[in-house]
Design brief:
This protein has 20 helices and ten strands. The chain folds into two domains: 185 residues, Serine Threonine Protein Phosphatase 5, Tetratricopeptide repeat (Alpha Horseshoe), CATH 1.25.40.890; 265 residues, no CATH class. It has a two-stranded antiparallel ribbon with strand order 1-3. It has a two-stranded antiparallel sheet with strand order 2-8. Helix content is 43%, strand content 8%. The chain is mainly alpha-helical. α3 packs parallel to α7 and α7 packs antiparallel against α8. The radius of gyration is 22 Å and the shape is globular.
Length: 493
């Protein structure tokens, strides 16, 4: 068996908790991965344990400056200003980079061990599928944060991130950045090979790549690539009775206390959630009280104005009093993990849904629109809005194609690599605005801003307004200094 060793240039010395004991042993004493059970244990750590929403969401047009200067934190200020965050701990870009490459290392070790054990008594096809999808997902997220969005005209020359395919066998190994095209080709290869192998036989399936989670990830991948037929194919695998599988915000608000909503939205009991991780994170508190967030103007734009049916949105904006303006959507809760019960110290962990039926439904609607099947797109849009509208009436609350075209007659700021007709642009903007509200505080808006080249304006209470233009170099996060010191090329500034 090949020993796991640190990926110094990529991980920056940050290791997964589940792998620390294993890596701290001398080579002769390390556990040999020689059974199905040990491979499954490795795969538990093949998912990123650092949240990306805390540093991506403040970069979007969802956020404004609430003016409560005493709640300014350096990390959020830098993210809101599109400046490099130096901190390398939880909820930061460097932390996410490190933990994601660490998860990829675990996936690669599992895949290598599976290869050595193939042909034995155990059927490891399900584990192989999970390893391939986990590796693909990790690289996909890294590529879309640190690289340009996919464009077939420039993908062969634009740099993305290193795509790591093997376990580490060297203490220090030099890496180079693959192009966007190379990374996307490898992601697609891993998806197409791994997807048919995925299984459902987990005691806690929501924390693993099941077939449903795999289809949802494939749907997102092909949406970002612009392969509309594939988006429809994979989304449709999991969207039977779609309105029963998406988040029901009216139910949350009418039946749960405010403190319960955050726990429910991201929990395994929520039918929409397909893949969940539980990172160490301060999302629960930071999103609520930070200086940058849901200003009154943003609240009016996103949640107070009537929805397309002319009714109230079902989303509930919560106001917390902490000496300043603190609007938020209650989406998160936290679990305290004690490292020393006697001393009362430990970590806050937050449940985060990485893949959902909601996202796949909107992806399919967008793909239908791009294929000019506006009737099918309207059907998906109505299904989505049925659970996001107060006092929804299935008889009278039905949008038409004309309604959607009238909602956003002008979408000139949407400029993906492919051309849009006026009707397609109106539909794409409409769907993106639905996604913007549904995934508020979850970071996904940033990827729409990148792939559509949407400009973003950020106001400040104490300095001039800043504008992120459609091709601003700051749309690419800067490569972590530890990786640059080992030879990775920086992004332009």
């Amino acid at each position: 068996m090949k020993n796991i060793k640190l990926i110094f240039p990529l991980i920056g010395l940050i290791l997964l908790t589940s792998c620390e004991d294993y890596l701290s042993e001398t080579p002769d004493n390390r556990t040999v991965i020689d059974s199905e059970e040990k491979i499954k244990e490795l795969l538990v750590g093949a998912y990123p344990t650092n949240a990306y929403a805390p540093f991506l969401e403040p970069m979007t047009d969802n956020y404004g400056d609430k003016g409560n200067l005493e709640e300014t934190t350096d990390d959020y200020l830098k993210s809101y200003s599109w400046e490099p965050v130096i901190n390398d701990q939880q909820d930061t870009p460097i932390g996410f980079w490190s933990e994601t490459y660490s998860a990829i290392a675990q996936a690669n070790q599992a895949l290598a061990s599976i290869s050595e054990l193939e042909g034995g008594e155990s059927d490891l096809s399900g584990e192989k599928g999970e390893g391939l999808l986990a590796r693909a997902y990790g690289h996909f997220m890294l590529a879309n944060i640190w690289g340009e969005h996919y464009d077939p005209q420039t993908a062969a020359s634009n740099l993305a991130i290193p795509y790591v395919l093997e376990p580490e066998t060297e203490a220090i190994k030099q890496y180079s950045r693959a192009t966007v095209e190379e990374v996307y080709n490898l992601i697609e290869k891993d998806i197409e090979e791994g997807l048919p192998l995925l299984e459902n036989d987990y005691s806690q399936p929501d924390y693993h790549f099941t077939p449903a989670a795999g289809f949802a990830f494939a749907s997102r991948f092909y949406l970002y690539k612009g392969d509309w037929d594939k988006v429809i194919e994979y989304s449709s695998e999991i969207l039977n009775n779609a309105d029963e599988r998406i988040r029901d915000w009216e139910y949350y608000v009418d039946n749960l206390q405010i403190s319960q909503i955050g726990a429910e939205v991201m929990s395994p009991s929520e039918p929409s959630n397909l893949l969940i991780v539980v990172p160490v994170s301060n999302i629960y508190e930071d999103f609520a009280i930070n200086r940058f967030g849901l200003t009154e103007n943003k609240k009016e734009e996103l949640f107070d104005a009537s929805n397309p049916y002319g009714k109230d949105w079902a989303y509930q904006v919560v106001f917390f009093s902490n000496g300043g303006l603190t609007n938020t959507i209650n989406k998160y809760d936290f679990i305290f993990e004690y490292t020393d019960i006697t001393a009362g110290i430990g970590y806050r962990r937050t449940s985060v849904a990485l893949l959902t039926h909601d996202e796949s439904l909107l992806a399919r609607a967008e793909a239908y629109a791009m294929k000019n099947d506006f009737a099918a797109a309207v059907q998906d849009i109505n299904a989505f809005l049925s659970n996001k509208t107060r006092n929804y009436n299935p008889v009278t609350d039905q949008l038409t194609e004309e309604d959607i075209l009238n909602e956003y007659p002008n979408a000139e700021e949407y400029n993906p690599y492919y051309s849009l007709t006026e009707n397609q642009a109106s539909f794409v903007k409409f769907i993106a605005e639905m996604r913007r509200r549904e995934f508020y505080m979850e970071g996904l808006r940033w990827f729409d801003i990148k792939r559509f080249h949407i400009p973003v304006t950020h106001d400040f209470i104490d300095k001039p307004t800043d504008i992120l233009t459609d091709n601003d170099n700051r749309r690419l996060l800067q490569i972590p200094p530890s990786a640059v010191s080992f030879g990775l090329q920086q992004n332009p500034r």
